[in-house]
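In the lab's daily routine, each protein ends up as an entry in a very long ledger. A line of letters takes care of the sequence, but it says nothing directly about the fold. The fold becomes a row of whole numbers, each drawn from a learned catalogue of backbone shapes. The protein below has been through that process, and both of its lines are reproduced in full:
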Amino acid sequence: MNRRLSLCALVAVIPAAAAGQDLETANALRYGSLQGNIRGEVHMLPSVSTGPMSPAWSPDGRSLVFSMAGDLWKTALDGGPVQQLTEGPWYHFEPAWSPDGRWIAATVETGAGLDLALVNPSSGDTRVLVSNPGVDVQPAWGPDGRFVYFASAEDGSFDIRRVDVETGGQELVVGGRGNQIQPSVSPSGELVWLGPAPGTSGSGGLWRASPTSAKDPVLIRAEETAYRARPRWVPGRDAIVYVSDDGGRTTWR
């Protein structure tokens, strides 16, 4: 992609109301696997926005990729222009940079559903990575770059799966009652996600497990945190940062 613009020129490039109406109509028709899953429909489908969303750091910390108006954009943090990586026809969002910097995983609305794709951060070339009958969202890389973890719904609720980037093979990592969503993987391979918590009436709490261990997942935080929690591992530390609704206020923890 050769189109560029300066940071001060990040303005609306599609009519938000029209885009929102079109996408909402498409959602109602395409995502039958979410029928009856009101929270999934509200919180898991693409956000129609003409402003920048879902920023993700490059592994070297020098660049930032984000979604805006259905495409992915990249900028260097030392200044300079913003580069548009993708340009239709798919709607790209939720970018996640691979540990080696070679790929950006993203959720894409292809016209047939919500799938996962790999985007070349230099050329913007895109190839489909996951195309299941249901909804596949929220890609997160494993530490060695072999697997992409994601939330997948084929029967009305979300499970966490992972896909081998080279072979395309998929496997279930976390299943069970309710929505298991928002995976994040530590440098040592530990998985954390948002899922139902016993004794809570809200979205649940934070869980932790090792994908390679037979041990049961451990509930590490239960506070009825909402779907905006987005837990993330802190680089270089055995700690997690997330958005909390505890006490009726939205805060980072």
